[in-house]
Amino acid sequence: MFYFWRRALFSPFVFFFLSLLVWATVGALPASLFFSLLLLIHLILHLHQLKALDFWLANSDERMVPDGPGMWEEVFTRLNRMVRQHRKEHEQHIAALQHMEQATSALPEGVTILDGAYHIEWCNPLAEQHFGLDCKRDIGQQITYLARQPEFVQYLTLHEFSEPLVLCGARQDELTLSIKLIPYGNNKLLLISRDITHLERIETMRRDFIANVSHELRTPLTVVNGFVETLHDMPNLENSMTRRALHLMGEQTHRMERLVDDLLTLSKLENTLNTLQEETVNVSRLLSTLHQEGQSLSAKKHTLRLELASHCALLGNTDELRSAFSNLISNAIHYTPQGGEILVSWHEQGDRPVFSVQDSGSGIAPQHIPRLTERFYRVDRSRSRETGGTGLGLAIVKHITSRHQARLEIASVEGKGSTFSIVFPVSRRLTLPAEEAITA
Predict the structure, then answer these.
(1) CATH superfamily of 279-436
(2) Which CATH superfamily is domain 107-195 in?
(3) Which of 59, 89, 180, 206 could pair with 192 as two cysteines, CB 3.0-4.6 Å apart?
(4) For residue range 97-134, what is the model confidence (pLDDT) as tens digits?
């Protein structure tokens, strides 16, 4: 009831009713003056309340909500309720943000949030250490202005974020980082960085150990194999069992020599200091040579065909490509039954050059395909021993493929055969003069 009378007291209708009473009592002019005075007082009161509202809104956290007559009391009450609700939601948002920052700070990886133009929006303390950033100072800066390694800049330029980038010597302390960019949200990027310096040192030790042991094994194996061959060729060696034993010893030493050679090749390919020596590779001519070698290896047990649908060349290393192509061809010959067909082809998918080897062998089960390029991984160990494989051929092919920015694709159907393809990037495609191109 009191609130009703407070609101009614300051209503213009009340002023008008009072003015009518004055008009009826003392006349029109005094009534007009009285009504104007009431309106002026009403206006002054509203201006006073507006000023009180502005004063309160300027610092609503520390000041009490003003007390106003009439409808102002209801306005102040509603505004105060809205401000308190907004303050509560704001505090909840700040608490959630602090919780997220604490969680990302505890992660074992560096986390940096970038916009579509690679400007830094936020980073956790570990990312500051990895890239030498200052989160308060460098917000809004482009990441390439602060991390200027050419490999990192190229990684961002290519927009191919499916594989992580290993960045060696990321800072002066010889830090080695594994970097992964993950697009998310509305044109945002999450830059994840992980310190793999210790893992790289262990991997380097492993590579050096394998290379050194393989190198040291080569000389004694050569000596042993030489003596075995000498004994086997002796004319007075009549015992058949002795000859068979020497023959088996010779086969195994040859196999060990191939294994040592493959280990040394793999160690060389894995060496980060071994940069790719690029040249123009006439693939058609190279495949013609490998086709002849494959026919000799097959000894007419298979139908080995060469199809040159493209005469483009490659920018790459001849020796490495020869090794990769030769490994795939020899694998097809070894794992294809007698009388089977093998197709070696050089063609293009769009603008991308493609080398492929298709065989009619027994095929590979789907669960084995993802692991084929692992060192010493064998689908059938007994069959691998029969063919004399080392288990490193496809690992070598995978490394050579990666060094040429290509990808190895494997398609296989059990009982029908397999197709191994190396798809090269357009940037490595070269056009040969007509007189240098050869046909199959």
Answers:
(1) Histidine kinase-like ATPase, C-terminal domain (3.30.565.10)
(2) PAS domain (3.30.450.20)
(3) 180
(4) 777 777 777 777 888 888 888 898 888 888 888 888 88
